């Protein structure tokens, strides 16, 4: 097994060109009038080449080597520094950055595909540039002119890497408990920051000559709780204007020994009279971070997808090559001598796992890219109402994608590991690393439980929450199109319509019950999110089935699309009813305290 | 967080004394007439003390340190050698060994409880003594007098550790592909073994002065496939009769880098003209191993339970101590200041996880111990028909426990990790090690997919397979008792009766469909096994609810039993219907080849 990562370019093309029909929409955006499918595919092919050749080969070695911490300095694994420099040199960090800010101004859709590739190839490596977009958006939106001039160009280009410093030992999900303080720095336009932060990915490293920290802290006269938090930007090094630089009070005190992501340094940081500038208004730090965290959450969802894809690819390759036991049945034309061991890919238990991996990966790719597409519409559509609605839809889809994709990414890794049998437990086969690396995405950028609360309690239940209705309309529109199609597609459409109906009535039940028992929504939030996740996959597969009709070209790709789509409705979608039954349970039955 | 392992003695006592009422049965066995609950509990308390004080503290350090391989020699982590010597000295390996063979002759039930403790405290440590019972049973049953004299006493006492050498690179699940060969050793009563084996747990180490390998190989004139396999016993060192010893041709060529179990050396072994004796008849090696593998499979099930218990214990302790966010509701009398962060144990999403962990752990403990109890009946009952039936029931329950408990143990570790948030990903909190260590039990001693095939195709579907009917009778008898009880218990009884009915009719459907399409049972086996697993947990909880009535003493233990039992029927049991729907899908829909 010497399988290295291969980017799923064919399916990416299917999703962009056929499932989303993105190019037809690009034509209406002035900046993207010249952007067509061949151009987009060329970008993705170049990205794939870079990721496959330069990033993927560092994945296993970085896991073995890990990061080194010595006297406040962090050394990243061999090859990270050089490959990151090439990444910046090639302009990948600015792919979707406005041309006005020095970027290439391409759709976020392409950037999200790049994120998927990077996560699937080498999640630890991706951790360093992971916050570049978020930090850029945050400084663009809220930074003072001074900050924009001093920091933004190098942050946006990726020349300097960024971090997000929220968590403190006592303040994880509950950022209101943050204690770090900012005091005015006399005679300057800035502040001194003092405090300790933990779990800071890339808080210190040797990949760039400066690191720009976005730090949540309590400014002067801050009220307690989240309403007293302000955001500050604190560079590791300060430039003195004469081309020299001086050390700021930013210290890395250690790195964590983690389950996975060993190539990415998770740092404990101490800020001691560290000079920084306020970003946005005082006491409005969380709002400023929101723009950063939303971008980050969709990226985390792409990590789940990337891991699921890698898991699928590894398990699929292994199952073709490994022969054990006679098969109960073999596909027509299979070259297996009678009485001889068959590739395990023929055994039903393995086919179940492999088909489910594939169904999840390809379904999620459509939904993940769809979300990115809404972000593009939100950013670029000529009509302000369209922009607003797209933004709300993206904001509804983001927590679902984050929690559902990351849980599935981890589940996919474990299921794929099972295909390897005992070899799966051994490092050199790679899949156990996928499992370990994938686990973190269920925890950071808001645990998956926090995503579920965000979805149900902040975005679905409130009166006037329109995005949920928009989503159901989208799903039902697809169901109708399917029901006007050929018989197998018609069945998928009918099923999809039924799911939308169930989601709507279940939502109504939760709302009614929650009005009487304000714990209800908290009991059912996780299963509710998963229900919506499965409905979205059904939406993805119904549309894919509608597109990949037997009338379209006879390429194996479409035949397999149809088979996978049918399989999805036959098997994995049973999870929707399961989640629904758990939501019903949570509406009925209280929960003991343990 | 400095939580160390605490054995669940209170629940173990509940299961043995009340759920199984084991002592009433022990009175009918001559050897166990003096064995009563206080004596049994005293044994378990001593075991708990040893495990908590000597074994558990080595768990995290062994994971960090790992095993070292140098020039054919393997060094185990600090403390393993000494603590194992104490374990042998204290007689723990011979707890359930016949007094006639130098053991203490106690029920296997107690031994299984010890296995649970060891697995929960330090799975890697347990790997070394893990095969002592199986090897003892195998040599007792099939060893020649010469072998029994030369090897059995030291194997049985644990003075020498044992291994099981099956797997070769090309032969994992498919042992018929084994290539290792045995040739007669001229002028002796033995054979020379040549071949390579992989994934041999404890193939080499520094814990005992000799290691006894049970090796599957092809003897002279062996037919191909599994019917050509014979079993040989090959000691690492041969004794020359004068108290000296000579090196046998047994070489460790390396140890694996694994996802977990880092304290246990997984060895690649080369046998080169290694002298060994035939065990049992030639070409009947698999049959001889069966006795060993059955014992091992129930032990592996206990690993799943042990990990689930540890996961529950760690997450529960953490959730009490960690305060984040205001709670939607708090239990009566809780000491949380208004507006302040509450222990996360109060948050509904965490209560869901914690209650489910508890429901699974305690339900599985009852079922696991029940299986051991049947093994005791099979070994000791006065009536031969009772013995036979008990053996068949144990043999039916074993693959279910192995696959269901290990999948749940791993699932429990991941769910418990989620309770820790970001801290769960950090080594020092211990839970990520539980996750990594627990994963292997789904793979070895027959992957969980192999267990499912064993259950459905070998033990349920064949005509004349009586154990399945016996199991359903047991379940229905409990359902009837519950239905004669108080209202809440009655509801559980009615549900249990319904589950038994569903299992019976589903089994009939599979059988009918399988007769037409011989792939059917292979498609549904995994979900079928899980269905039976959930039915067994419902059986466990129905009986627990029946016992823990409000009339019984007011100890918190019983109040919590009732709450957990009710929770089980309200929430986790929804998985039964889910698995049932997947079995139905597998009966209907074929599977594509990927």
UniProtKB/TrEMBL annotation, chains A, B:
Domain Acyl-CoA dehydrogenase/oxidase C-terminal: 340-453
Domain called Acetyl-CoA dehydrogenase-like C-terminal: residue spans: 475-590
Cofactor(s), by name: FAD
Domain of life from the UniProt record: Bacteria
Domain Acyl-CoA oxidase/dehydrogenase middle stretches: 164-273
The Acyl-CoA dehydrogenase/oxidase N-terminal domain, residue ranges: 38-159
InterPro entries: Acyl-CoA_dh-like_C_dom (IPR025878), Acyl-CoA_Oxase/DH_mid-dom (IPR006091), Acyl-CoA_Oxase/DH_mid-dom_sf (IPR046373), AcylCo_DH-like_C (IPR036250), AcylCo_DH/oxidase_C (IPR009075), AcylCoA_DH/ox_N (IPR013786), AcylCoA_DH/ox_N_sf (IPR037069), AcylCoA_DH/oxidase_NM_dom_sf (IPR009100)
Keywords in alphabetical order: FAD, Flavoprotein, Oxidoreductase
GO terms for MF: flavin adenine dinucleotide binding; oxidoreductase activity, acting on the CH-CH group of donors
PANTHER family: ACYL-COA DEHYDROGENASE, BROAD-SPECIFICITY LINEAR ACYL-COA DEHYDROGENASE FADE5
Family: Belongs to the acyl-CoA dehydrogenase family.
Official protein name in the record: Acyl-CoA dehydrogenase
């Amino acid at each position: 097994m010497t399988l290295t990562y291969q980017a799923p370019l064919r399916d990416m093309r299917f999703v962009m060109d056929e499932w989303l029909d993105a190019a037809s929409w690009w034509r209406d955006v002035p900046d993207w009038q010249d952007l067509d499918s061949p151009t987009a595919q060329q970008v993705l092919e170049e990205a794939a080449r870079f990721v496959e050749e330069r990033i993927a080969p560092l994945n296993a070695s970085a896991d073995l080597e890990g990061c080194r911490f010595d006297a406040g300095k962090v050394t990243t694994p061999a090859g990270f520094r050089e490959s990151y420099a090439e990444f910046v040199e090639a302009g990948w960090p600015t792919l979707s950055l406005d041309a006005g800010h020095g970027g290439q101004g391409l759709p976020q859709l392409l950037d999200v595909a790049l994120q998927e590739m990077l996560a699937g190839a080498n999640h630890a490596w991706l951790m360093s540039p992971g916050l570049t977009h978020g930090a850029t958006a945050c400084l663009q939106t809220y930074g003072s002119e001074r900050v924009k001039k001093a920091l933004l160009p190098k942050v946006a280009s990726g020349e300097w890497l960024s971090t997000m410093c929220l968590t403190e030992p006592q303040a994880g999900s509950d950022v209101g408990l943050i204690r770090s303080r900012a005091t005015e720095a006399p005679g300057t336009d800035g502040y001194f920051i003092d405090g300790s932060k933990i779990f800071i990915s890339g808080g210190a490293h040797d990949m760039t000559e400066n690191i720009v920290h976005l730090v949540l802290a309590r400014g002067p006269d801050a009220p307690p709780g989240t309403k007293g938090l302000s955001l500050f930007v604190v560079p590791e090094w300060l430039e003195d204007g004469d081309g020299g630089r001086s050390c700021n009070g930013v210290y890395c005190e250690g790195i964590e020994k983690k389950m996975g992501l060993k190539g990415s340094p998770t740092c404990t940081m101490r800020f001691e009279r560290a000079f920084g500038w306020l970003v946005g208004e005082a006491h409005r730090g969380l709002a400023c971070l929101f723009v950063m965290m939303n971008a980050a959450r969709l990226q985390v969802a792409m990590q789940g997808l990337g891991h699921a894809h890698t898991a699928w690819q590894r398990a699929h390759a292994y199952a073709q090559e490994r022969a054990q036991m006679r098969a109960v049945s073999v596909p027509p034309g299979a070259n297996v001598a009678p009485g001889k061991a068959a590739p395990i890919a023929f055994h039903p238990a393995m086919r179940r796992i492999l088909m489910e991996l594939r169904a999840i990966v390809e379904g999620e790719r459509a939904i993940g890219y769809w979300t990115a597409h809404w972000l593009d519409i939100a950013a670029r559509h000529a009509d302000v109402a369209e922009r607003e609605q797209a933004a709300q839809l993206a904001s509804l889809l983001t927590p679902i994608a984050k929690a559902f994709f990351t849980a599935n990414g981890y589940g996919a890794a474990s299921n794929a590991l099972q295909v390897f049998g005992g070899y799966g437990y051994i490092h050199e086969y790679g899949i156990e690393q996928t499992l370990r690396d994938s686990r973190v995405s269920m925890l950071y950028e808001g645990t998956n439980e926090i995503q579920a609360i965000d979805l149900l309690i902040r975005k679905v239940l409130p009166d006037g929450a329109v995005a949920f209705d928009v989503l159901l309309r989208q799903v039902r529109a697809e169901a109708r199109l399917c029901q006007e199609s050929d018989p197998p597609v018609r069945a998928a459409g009918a099923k999809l319509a039924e799911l939308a109906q169930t989601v709507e009535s279940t939502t109504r039940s939760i709302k009614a019950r929650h009005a009487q028992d304000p714990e209800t929504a908290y009991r059912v939030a996780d299963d509710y999110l998963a229900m919506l996740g499965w409905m979205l996959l059904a939406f993805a597969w119904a549309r894919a089935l509608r597109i990949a009709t037997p009338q379209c070209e006879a390429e194996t790709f479409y035949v397999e699309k149809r088979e996978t789509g049918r399989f999805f409705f036959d098997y994995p979608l049973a999870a929707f009813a399961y989640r629904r039954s758990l939501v019903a349970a949570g509406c009925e039955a209280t929960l003991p305290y343990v």
